[in-house]
Write a structure and sequence with these properties.
The chain has one helix and six strands; from the N terminus they run E-E-H-E-E-E-E. The protein is mainly β. The strands form two sheets. It has a four-stranded mixed beta sheet, covered by helices on one side. The radius of gyration is 13 Å and the shape is elongated. The termini are far apart.
């Protein structure tokens, strides 16, 4: 079982409109899948994402590793 390593960063490229709004969104499942592709297994329910990400730019997402331990994941979204 690969434990999640703090200070991870992931990047997505998505289709976006002129003002940087995405056509669609990035969900906690997308983030969990991307982390898993890096060998960092994390349950999507541990990812604190109040709303799906719908804009290009850098976003910080909190992952609850244990009740008192959190890690920040830098999510970068670029326009296609």
């Amino acid at each position: 079982d690969n434990l999640f390593i703090p200070d991870a960063s992931i990047a997505f490229t998505r289709k976006a409109g002129e003002e940087g709004k995405l056509f669609g969104s990035i969900t906690s499942q997308d983030i969990a899948d991307s982390l898993a592709a890096q060998g960092k297994t994390v349950d999507k329910r541990r990812i604190e994402l109040p709303h799906p990400i719908k804009a290009v730019g850098e976003h910080t997402v909190i992952v609850r590793l244990h009740p008192e331990v959190h890690a920040d994941v830098r999510v970068t979204v670029a326009a296609e």
